[in-house]
């Protein structure tokens, strides 16, 4: 495969967010802006095409200025359904994926993921925090679309099960595992906000 090919990215915001009380996580405010804006800002610096996978509040997501694509298999079928939708609708050979609720991931991290994919013969590269795979931060060949469609048609939903069917490599972020801190509950959102404000205060505080 020629690895110097077009790269697209998708921000995954198509879930039900049950632990967040059903609130649409991508639209919740983090540091004064919708949480998905952090992911968009990071991804847009790395890819040639960018889309948002969402299954509700579509008009609000369209305000970010990127195509909004919903699941093809039905709605709320998990992150792989969003990946399949992006593979189908975006014209690229490499797809980067990122969930909407990981505001600490930056463009440099995504570039590391992409570089790992380009430099290996893997069909898919996943982020790794030193302890476990991060299965929704991926660089994946869109040539796997048929495999993914079959897996979902069979009722498969678990991301790691599908990943392990293919040539998988890891992008090692074990030196900075905190970037994967996602936000699933109102308490976690409050905690991340406090941590961010404390960090900002430490940076701006001047000695007497």
- The CATH C-level class name: Alpha Beta
The fraction of residues assigned to DSSP E strands is 15-25%
Helical coverage, percent range: 25-40%
- Cα-atom Rg, whole angstroms? 17 Å
What is the general shape?
Answer: globular
Overall average residue pLDDT: 88
Q: Can you tell me the CATH superfamily?
A: Spore Coat Polysaccharide Biosynthesis Protein SpsA, Chain A
Based on secondary structure, the structural category is alpha/beta
Between the first and last Cα atoms, what is the distance in angstroms? 59 Å
Number of strands: 9
Please specify the SSE layout and strand pairing.
Blueprint (H helix, E strand, L loop, with lengths): L6 E7 L15 E2 L2 E2 H10 L4 E6 L3 H5 L5 E2 L9 H11 L4 E6 L7 H13 L4 E5 L4 E9 L3 H9 L5 H5 L4 E5 L13 H19 L4
Parallel strand pairs: 1-4, 1-6, 4-5, 7-9
Antiparallel strand pairs: 2-3, 6-8, 7-8
Describe this structure in words.
This protein is an alpha/beta fold. The chain has a single domain, classed as Alpha-Beta Complex (Spore Coat Polysaccharide Biosynthesis Protein SpsA, Chain A). Helix content is 35%, strand content 21%. The chain has helices at 35-44, 58-62, 79-89, 107-119, 145-153, 159-163, 186-204; strands at residues 7-13, 29-30, 33-34, 49-54, 68-69, 94-99, 124-128, 133-141, 168-172. The protein has a seven-stranded mixed beta sheet, with helices on both faces. Helix 2 (58-62) links the parallel strand 4 (49-54) and strand 5 (68-69). The termini are far apart.
Provide tags for this entry.
single chain, alpha/beta, two-stranded antiparallel ribbon, Spore Coat Polysaccharide Biosynthesis Protein SpsA, Chain A, 208 residues
């Amino acid at each position: 495969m020629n690895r110097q090919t077009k790269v697209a990215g998708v921000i995954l915001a198509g879930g039900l967010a049950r632990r967040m009380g059903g609130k649409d996580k991508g639209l919740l405010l983090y540091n004064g802006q919708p949480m998905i804006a952090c992911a968009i800002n990071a991804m847009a610096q790395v890819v040639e095409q960018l889309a948002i996978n969402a299954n509700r509040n579509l008009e609000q997501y369209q305000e970010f200025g990127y195509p909004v694509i919903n699941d093809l298999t039905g709605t709320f079928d998990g992150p792989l359904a969003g990946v399949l939708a992006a593979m189908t609708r975006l014209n690229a050979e490499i797809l980067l994926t990122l969930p909407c609720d990981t505001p600490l991931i930056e463009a440099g991290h995504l570039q590391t993921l992409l570089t790992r994919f380009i430099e290996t013969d893997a069909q898919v590269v996943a982020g790794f925090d030193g302890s476990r795979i991060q299965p929704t931060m991926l660089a994946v060949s869109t040539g796997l679309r048929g495999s993914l469609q079959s897996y979902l048609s069979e009722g498969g939903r678990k991301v790691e099960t599908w990943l392990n069917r293919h040539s998988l490599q890891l992008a090692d972020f074990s030196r900075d595992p905190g970037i994967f801190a996602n936000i699933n509950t109102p308490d976690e959102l409050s905690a991340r906000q406090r941590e961010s404000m404390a960090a900002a205060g430490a940076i701006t505080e001047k000695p007497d």
